[in-house]
Amino acid sequence: MSTINPINNPEDNPRVKVVFDEIRQLRGTDYINNLWRYLAMDADLLENVWTDVRDLMATETLLDFKTKEMVYLAVSIANACQYCVHSHTAAAKARGMTDPEHAEFLRIVMTAGKTNHLLNAMQVPVDNIFDAEQVL
Amino acid sequence: MSTINPINNPEDNPRVKVVFDEIRQLRGTDYINNLWRYLAMDADLLENVWTDVRDLMATETLLDFKTKEMVYLAVSIANACQYCVHSHTAAAKARGMTDPEHAEFLRIVMTAGKTNHLLNAMQVPVDNIFDAEQVL
Amino acid sequence: MSTINPINNPEDNPRVKVVFDEIRQLRGTDYINNLWRYLAMDADLLENVWTDVRDLMATETLLDFKTKEMVYLAVSIANACQYCVHSHTAAAKARGMTDPEHAEFLRIVMTAGKTNHLLNAMQVPVDNIFDAEQVL
Amino acid sequence: MSTINPINNPEDNPRVKVVFDEIRQLRGTDYINNLWRYLAMDADLLENVWTDVRDLMATETLLDFKTKEMVYLAVSIANACQYCVHSHTAAAKARGMTDPEHAEFLRIVMTAGKTNHLLNAMQVPVDNIFDAEQVL
Amino acid sequence: MSTINPINNPEDNPRVKVVFDEIRQLRGTDYINNLWRYLAMDADLLENVWTDVRDLMATETLLDFKTKEMVYLAVSIANACQYCVHSHTAAAKARGMTDPEHAEFLRIVMTAGKTNHLLNAMQVPVDNIFDAEQVL
Amino acid sequence: MSTINPINNPEDNPRVKVVFDEIRQLRGTDYINNLWRYLAMDADLLENVWTDVRDLMATETLLDFKTKEMVYLAVSIANACQYCVHSHTAAAKARGMTDPEHAEFLRIVMTAGKTNHLLNAMQVPVDNIFDAEQVL
To answer: What sign does the dihedral B36-B42-B45-B51 (CA atoms) show?
Structure first.
């Protein structure tokens, strides 16, 4: 059940086909996951999202792929995005996150959730030493 | 301005002193930041939070310190915890996050925020291949 | 699966019947959706919520109905409320939101999610020109 | 106090100057607000965010400018992004949102916040009629 | 700094005066806090919010006042609403929450934040025994 | 569907068996709910979470059990944690929350959601009288 109707034969639209071909090639699989299949209803939207994700998450950058997926996943958990949690957990594992690392990752996320709530409750003033200009 | 009154001479309480001594030793600085100073009003609470944070963030574990701080920071940003964002940005830098890595980190966090909102809006069904039992 | 037990024959309670009759009349349909059917377990709660929603979303006010539903939906997405996202997407469409407008709406929501995360991470000071008293 | 150090003379970087010139031209003012000034520390990041915002919020699209700003603002409020709330309230007013419309907008946002919490608490099943494929 | 301009002499409007008089009487103080002073710019909005808050938080109902304020505060913390955290911490104390109870309250809130993040990450299936119809 | 694979025969691990035995004893039932069964994949994580929850929610402390569960539930609702909302609604009922109290609890949660959004939108300054040091 979704709020978007997936369209039939999305690759009849050549712009969609270009994106789907890139996804298949970069991932080495024929499977196109639901996010992209549903986004295909609007080529502008599909290209905009795919470009952002591809250039960052499917391209060599400064941070390694596993770290990038764990950061992405951490945000998705805090935002309670079910689809994102599932897809980026799978991606982090595909990028090498082991089960013990996953358990430790969960510990970090839950400890952050713990202190985030504590600090939002206490409203203590931010120390001056944390100011970017002081950290220099 | 806070919702908690910091107490005077917190280290008169020996349990508080033990925690503060550990913080000073592990960080190699005399500075005790506000979170711990305000938590000192309740030794149980202080010890509970410090133990969780120390064993995970100030101890050698599977993931390296920089990665751990970036994951912690990612959650804190998504939860809009001002204090946590400031303190864990400073910690990530202290653990070696460079300015270009910080910029890339911001790109991951904002792209996750982008797709989290998109997926929460589209409510597309989670692909079966993301199920942990399928990923095996 | 819910945390509330829907009651049998809710309209045996005349206060519930009044609300359900208004819903049916204002929407031109016999269908009462689950929110109201489950809320019927407590007439005070039902009337309180229905009054707020009716006077704002089912009544002519300053903003047009389509805009109001899109604003309501935007909040619901950011709060990850599944039921609300489904019901207010349907309502926005019923009030005239076309598929291309829906796609553009998604672009706004996801771009806001993107910059919200970026700004919560950067913690840049708010410009004085944004102060309400300055904008005059 | 921020987590990013704004750089001196950002427009010495020609890529930054291009973006700043576009901002000044599109808004008809010499003022560059803090978001862009701080983002100038990384030209890639600056261009990525500016392109998304410009093509959507500073360009004629399907939805009118005032509606777009109100949707953007609604998301920002739900995400507790202080900077975004201030900047997009000012933008919505600049795009024509009157004080009575602002008051009504607040009513929509707070009523959505109310029912979002109620539904997240009740966990009632989503009605089949809200499924996109049923709405057709 | 706010997004709303407080008006001068709000009690020149008799509808505002009625609300302010009720606030002063129910709280036994002449002080009107900023929420109500800023809301005075729109009498409809002021009355709508005040009625909801008065009938629930300033009236004898089933739950005692201290418990009600702690529940209200818990939600406000999770939503990162600074103003609400400050005002409802003060209210909970005014309703009898002692410092040791406050410390324990913080422990509940932070532990909930911890497990909320853990469960949103693990996405484990909800046990059937938690279904309202089973709990009967 | 989950992101964690539950292991077979978790109680073959004696550390897991200790936790499960405590859960069964403290709750007076043989049923181990999914949170603990899935956490059994990592004994450190299981013990860490169980210790926090047991010492606070399954132990006599200052606040009564029903109040503690309502505060825990309030946070879980605001965080949109489905599993937590289901499990802690059931726990609050098991600790004595009646149906009319549940309805009133929902009213508090939704009213907090309402004013949280309103205040996050208005960004009114926090009154000095709410400062902890002033409240003394």
So the answer is: positive
The H or E element spanning position B25 is helix B14-27
pLDDT at C135 (0 to 100): 55
Write the pLDDT tens digit of every residue in D36-90. 999 999 999 999 999 999 999 999 999 999 999 999 999 999 999 999 999 999 9
Q: Which of A133, A134, A136 to mutate to test binding with chain D, by most D CBs within 10 Å of its CB? A: A133
Return the pLDDT at B1.
83
Which CATH superfamily does the domain covering B62-123 fall into?
Answer: AhpD-like (1.20.1290.10)
Per CATH, domain C9-59 is 1.20.1290.10: yes
The answer, yes or no, to whether residue B85 has pLDDT greater than 70, is yes
Smallest Cα distance from E5 to chain C, Å? 6
- The CATH architecture to which A62-121 belongs is Up-down Bundle (1.20)
C132 in contact with E, Cβ within 8 Å = yes
Say how far apart CA E80 and CA E89 lie, in whole Å: 13
Q: Does B77 touch chain C (CB under 8 A)?
A: yes
pTM equals 0.97
Domain boundaries A1-59, CATH class: mainly alpha
CA gap A109, F45 in Å, rounded: 12
User: Is the C-alpha dihedral spanning E29, E32, E35, E39 positive or negative?
Assistant: positive
CB E126 within 8 A of CB B65: no
CA-closest candidate to residue C102, choices D97, D113, A5: A5
Cβ within 8 Å of residue F12, ≥6 positions away: none
The residue of chain E nearest to residue C132, with distances taken between CA atoms, is E3
Phi, psi of C63, rounded to the nearest 5 degrees: -85, 150
Range list of H helices, chain E: 14-27, 34-39, 43-57, 65-78, 82-94, 99-122, 132-135
Let me know if domain F10-59 sits in CATH 1.20.1290.10.
Answer: yes
Cβ contact B110–D49 (<8 Å): yes
**Residue C21 identity (one-letter amino acid):** D
What is the tens place of the pLDDT at every residue in E92-128? 999 999 999 999 999 999 999 999 999 999 999 999 9
H helices present in A41-98, as ranges = 43-57, 65-78, 82-94
